[in-house]
């Protein structure tokens, strides 16, 4: 079989930055534009959620720079990362900023793009499959189903200060969205679930944690809103993880096409995610 031809796809220009989503983990979920960028970039500035299998597609000689941000651990400041992209572009490099998921869905891509605009750096945005959709699909959980929900809310579990976002109207979200998908929620899961319970969500409503979604390390903890914090602690669930609340979680029992590892909440204390 001959190699796939990338004829007709855009060329990366020296001095330009591409903000590219790598998807939730599986390199098969990379877009053609993303693979095209990996095969051209001089420097790849990647975050902690980009799977090594995706980085292995980089062209020989490309420089890999880690710029991962992890909650509670030493991390580069966002402004420093943005200015690093500017500096590399001004050196005439073809710069690929590679992010897990989608750069514009809780990925700080908008912040980086604004800095590039501020400094007159040309850029391109390549969307990726966000973990809140692709990662849940790999766990057998559809975010929509016309017999269950026509509304989905995506929210982040912490703001730029690292605290639970005070701009989220938890009462309105709880009442108005049958399905809630939460990014970066592990650190404050006790407070978040308490907010949702206080707003009227049922304690026995199904909830799932999908850890290391769409990778060989994927595991799923199915539990309920009322037990979520305790079960996650007992099971040792840790980031990166997507949290989904709603009746669509029940569909996993028949839609788990991948046959991925599952942690039974009843025996969570004996399992490690």
TrEMBL record:
All copies of domain Tetrapyrrole methylase, residue ranges: 17-228
Magnesium is among the record's keywords: no
Q: Mind telling me which Gene3D superfamilies this protein's record contains?
A: Cobalt-precorrin-4 Transmethylase, Domain 1, Methyltransferase, Cobalt-precorrin-4 Transmethylase, Domain 2
Tell me yes or no: is Magnesium among this UniProt entry's keywords. Answer: no
Name the domain of life: Bacteria
Which terms does the UniProt entry file under GO BP?
cobalamin biosynthetic process; methylation; siroheme biosynthetic process
Read off the InterPro entries from this record: 4pyrrol_Mease, 4pyrrol_Methylase_sf, 4pyrrole_Mease_sub1, 4pyrrole_Mease_sub2, CobA/CysG_C, Siro_Cobalamin_biosynth, Uropor_MeTrfase_CS
Pfam entry (one) = TP_methylase
Q: Could you tell me the keywords of this UniProt record? A: Cobalamin biosynthesis, Methyltransferase, Porphyrin biosynthesis, S-adenosyl-L-methionine, Transferase
- E.C. no: 2.1.1.107
Question: Which GO molecular function annotations are given, in alphabetical order?
Answer: uroporphyrin-III C-methyltransferase activity
- Pathway it belongs to? Cofactor biosynthesis; adenosylcobalamin biosynthesis; precorrin-2 from uroporphyrinogen III: step 1/1; Porphyrin-containing compound metabolism; siroheme biosynthesis; precorrin-2 from uroporphyrinogen III: step 1/1
Annotated family: Belongs to the precorrin methyltransferase family.
- Full protein name: uroporphyrinogen-III C-methyltransferase
Source species: Rhizobium quercicola
Lineage of the organism:
Bacteria, Pseudomonadati, Pseudomonadota, Alphaproteobacteria, Hyphomicrobiales
What is this protein's gene name? cobA
